[in-house]
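G., the chain you wanted modeled:
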Amino acid sequence: MTEKKPSKQPRIGTRSTVTLQQVAERAGVGVMTASRAINSPDLVSEKLRLRVQAAIRDLGYLPNEYAGRLASNRSKIVVFILPSVSSGVFRFIVQGAEEVLSPLGYQVMVTAASHSLEEEEAACWKILGWKPEGVVLSGTDHTDAMRAMLLAAEIPVVEALELGDQTIDINIGLSHQDAGRAAAHHLLERGYKRLGFLSSNIDNDYRAQRRRHGFVSVIKEAGLSVVCDINQSGKVVFESGALAAKQVMASGFDVDAIFCSSDELAVGAVSAALRAGRKIPQDLAIMGFNDLDISAHMVPAISSIRTPRVEIGRLAAEAILTRIAGDPYPARIDVGFEIVARETT
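Predicted structure as tokens:
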């Protein structure tokens, strides 16, 4: 039986002097091949990739970009901890930040926490090991342990998307309770009196909870009551909207207008109502939240509440850069929202 020799440990203190040429020579390949194995490993054979990786480990090689960052004690990394990496809402926020950060050589890292405070805390603990120069969080609800970690890190922290009372550092967002109130006023002003609310996984979506609270409070102030309040669970939000709308229609709720906690839900609800032969908005008015691109292109076009997602990302990036430079930045920025009335209301 052939005895396996333990792999050599990287030599301490020599990483900054190791070049890609040396890695290529150790692996017995050309420089371009070694570079391809590092940057596009799917374009080389498994055997070749393993040889290059072994050379990297033996020599303690680091790409020049990271070596430079280590030498300057600057990571130039800004981390976003978001509930989801697939949602259009969060994608546009990251886009706005990258427009500001990327030209300056900063790398944006994104990690998902699945609407869980515990997962968010675990993600925070991991990313702080990368020594980021700033962190952007979704919302203002976090565990006490996570707050303590971020305060101890002494880096700029932006809590984005909503406004809160007890924030860690910088707060950029809007009042979701006010947005819910605005939705109720919009529907009431158009003559709808039998209002309902549809949501998805609301138990872990604190911003949706606040929109619901604002919506319900206005209805009660008007001397009315919420006809239906349905929460669907599931990962496919469009499907959840359709299922919730079907539940409303099948249950015989005497409802003439529905506020959905997201545009994805509203799209599903509109599709289900149309398939059931309902006229929109004559039989059932439907309103969404966030004003995603799909809302304007639906037939009928969906009324929604527009949030400035790209602007929030840009402002978050600018806030972090300003604080890194040692300059003051407003602790709280209200970006507001806008009612976009279309064909469904």
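Residues 1-15 have pLDDT under 50 and may be disordered.

Shout if anything looks off.
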